[in-house]
Amino acid sequence: MNKFLISSLAFGTLAAIGCGGDDGATPTPDAAVDAPPAGTLCETYCANMDANCTGDNAQYLNTADCMSFCAEAGWPDGAPGAMAGNSLECRVYHSGAPAASNGALHCPHAGPTGDGVCGTVDFRTDAPTAYTRVDAMGMPAVSTALVGSTMKNAYNDASPDSSGFVSEFVTNLTGVHAALDDDLTGLGLTPCAAGSTCVSQEVAPGVSVASLIVPSDSLNVNPAAAAGFPNGRKLSDPVIDVTLAVILLRLGMPCGAGTCTPATLASLPLNPPANDVAFSTAFPYVAPIHAP
Length: 292
What we know:
By secondary structure, the chain is mainly alpha-helical. Helices cover 34% and strands 5% of the residues.
C-alpha cells in the first residue's frame, strides 16, 4: 500500500520561425533600452519577465520558475536584438521595452512557447490510427491492480471503453480482499465487502468508485468544479492512498480511533519518510527521484 506518484511531463518542440514586427512593420531596437545588463541571458530575460509581465500577462509563477525553465529549455542565444525566431535574445527583446509598453501583446511572445513569434509549439497532427496504445493508465491503479497479467494485453489493446472488463475488475478486487482483509482488520480498519459494496462507495460526493472505471478507464476534468482528485489530479493529491481506501475500507465504519474516510490511508504512516519529499516551487515541480 505504499504511496507512489507517477508523473509524466510532456514538452512541445519549439520550432524557429521568422516574421517582422508585431504590427506588420519592422521595429528598430533601441540600443539604450534593450541592451542586456550584466549577467547571463537567462537572468536578463527573467528580470524582464518579473518586471514587465505580471498579473494577467505573467508567463511564469515567479523568477525562480522562469530561471528553472530557461535553464532547461535549451533555447539558442540568437542574435542580440532579434525580434523573431526561436531564441533567448528574441525573448529578451520582447520581454523588455515592448512588454513594458504592451504586455498583453509581447509577454506571450517572450513566454515559453514564443506564441508564434519567438517560437511555436509543433503539435503532431497524425491520425489516431497512426499511434499504438501500449498502456491504458487513465484512472490511476486500475490497470495495475485490477487487471490480471493474462488480460493485460487485451485491456491495453482495447478502446478506452472498459465495460467488457467488469468481471475482471470484480474478480481481482475480490482476490485483493481475500488476501488483505485479515491484515486490515488486524490494523483496526474495517474492510468493505468486495464487489458491490466497495465499487458503489463514493470517492467524492456524487462520484462512485464504479463511475471512475466504467464505462471508461479515464480521469475526467470538469472546469466548473474544484480541481483535485477525482476531478483531475494535482501533484500533491494522494491519489493511490485515496483509491486504495475506497476499494479496501468500508467508509463510515470504525478505522482505529476514527472513522474510515477516503483520506484514512493517506494519514497513516505507511511510507518511509524518504518517500515524502516536498515538491519544488520551480519547474518541473516534482521532487527529485528517490534512489532506495
